[in-house]
Amino acid sequence: MPERARLQAAIDRVLDRAGSDEAASAFGGARYTENGQELPVGEGLWATADKVGPYCHLFLDPEAGQAACFATLTEGRTRSIMALRVKATGAEVGEIEAIVARPALFGGAGAFGDGPGALDASGGADPAWNEVIHPSERIDRAGLRRVADMYFAGLERNDGKGDYPFSDDCIRIENGFRTTGVAPAPGAGKTPYAEAFRALSAKEQFETGYFRFVDRIRDRRFPVIDPERGLVFALAFFDHSGTVRDYQLADGTPRKGIDRPFSWMIAEAFRIERGLITRIEALMTECPYGMKPGWPA
């Protein structure tokens, strides 16, 4: 079996057994973490998942023997988005890592609304993600990792003056919703800043210096890299110390920052063409400030 097909079959087996009594027997030898916490296979989402999908955005790295995906997840009445990473050697799955962005426990969908519904309604990831890049234009693994890391470097303590490798039409999806190039809703009155910000391109957003309150982006990992399609699947933590309470945008406009410490646990994927990021999909869920990763960087 070709290596891509083998990896896809491995992650499909894991997804198919979410919520199944067969999970522990099938993958009991694998190391598993859920939102950074090591658990036995069979606990956590393995016990609660009723359905995975229909949205599933897949990433494959035959050289590293790893696969990852973003997928929607149903647990009882709860609808969530999951990022899943699987490492397999031959038919043996040795590592399973899940990050699940669940809504607030006692009501409310959280800051991102019904992202799972938006993803399922989309019919799947944009086909542009999986277009094969001509061999003459491919970037090697180190080059792809470097460009993806430039995204994190530009976001950390963002001042609007960095080198931001975005195409003009880069599309970013965060927890199910598009956050770049979104036209403001029609209506009378002044456009709220949040809507005006989403209308900007990814590069324009970084150039505002808006994200200065992200103090540190640490424990960056790049487990899945696919030069054939220009893809990088990364994991990291975004730390907010709560000390950047008042700051100025790059143009001098005053902004209110964040007054409490917390971190985002992040899974983020990039499509890179000719050295520029053209597509981004991200999943994030809040975690305790400074939380340590479940896997080495």
Question: What this model shows, in words?
Answer:
The chain is α+β, with helices and mostly antiparallel strands. It has 2 domains: 123 residues, Roll (Nuclear Transport Factor 2, Chain: A); 159 residues, Nuclear Transport Factor 2, Chain: A (Roll), CATH 3.10.450. The strands form 3 sheets. Strands 2-1-6-5-4-3 form a 6-stranded mixed β-sheet, with helices on both faces. Strands 8-7-14-13-10-9 form a 6-stranded mixed β-sheet.
Assign an overall shape: globular
Report on the biggest sheet.
6 strands, mixed
How much of the polypeptide forms β-strand, as a percent range? 35-45%
Helix content: 10-25%
CATH fold call of the largest domain: Nuclear Transport Factor 2, Chain: A
- Extract low-pLDDT stretches: none
- Distance between the amino and carboxyl termini: 31 Å
- The helix tally amounts to 7
Show the helix and strand layout.
Elements: H1 3-16, H2 23-27, E1 31-34, E2 37-39, H3 45-48, E3 51-61, E4 66-75, E5 78-89, E6 92-101, H4 115-122, H5 141-155, E7 166-174, E8 177-178, H6 193-198, H7 202-208, E9 216-226, E10 231-240, E11 246-248, E12 254-256, E13 262-273, E14 276-287
Parallel strand pairs: 1-6, 7-14
Antiparallel strand pairs: 1-2, 3-4, 4-5, 5-6, 7-8, 9-10, 10-13, 11-12, 13-14
Task: Characterize this entry briefly.
It is built from seven helices and 14 strands. It is of the alpha+beta class.
